[in-house]
Design goal:
Layout (H helix, E strand, L loop, with lengths): L1 H30 L6 H13 L5 H29 L3 H36 L2
Length: 125
């Protein structure tokens, strides 16, 4: 009976490691989202959002933070479009999009920050 229990215990221990490994990978990739250029940020965001994660809690943080950073990218793209505009009629819609994206960032930020804090508290040692 003890011989049968050992593989089960090992399996359960490894299952707990899955979340930790995924959490550490996600936290690492989250750190790569701060890039000097918009193109680099977009590429890092794509990598972050495409991580194939299996654990629900880590996927939830990925979804929340990915949405927040997508809104940041949208705000930056819209701001750039407004800068390139040659007149108010061209620039105003872009500024409106930028403002809306920044409002979305503010709405999404608390959930992202809380999720990251939770992963760090449970998995970084």
């Amino acid at each position: 009976m003890r011989l049968l229990a050992l593989p089960l215990l090992l399996l359960l221990a490894c299952a707990g490691d899955d979340e930790r490994n995924e959490a550490l990978l996600l936290l690492d990739r989250y750190g790569h989202l701060e890039q000097p250029t918009l193109a680099a940020r977009k590429a890092a965001l794509s990598d972050f959002r495409e991580l194939a994660l299996r654990t629900e809690r880590v996927r939830d943080v990925q979804t929340r933070c990915g949405a927040m950073h997508a809104a940041l990218v949208e705000a930056e793209e819209a701001t750039e479009a407004a800068r390139r505009a040659t007149n108010l009629a061209e620039g105003e819609p872009a500024l409106t999009r930028s403002a809306a994206a920044l409002e979305e960032v503010e709405r999404l930020r608390p959930a992202c920050d809380q999720g990251l804090a939770s992963l760090r508290a449970h998995h970084e040692r």
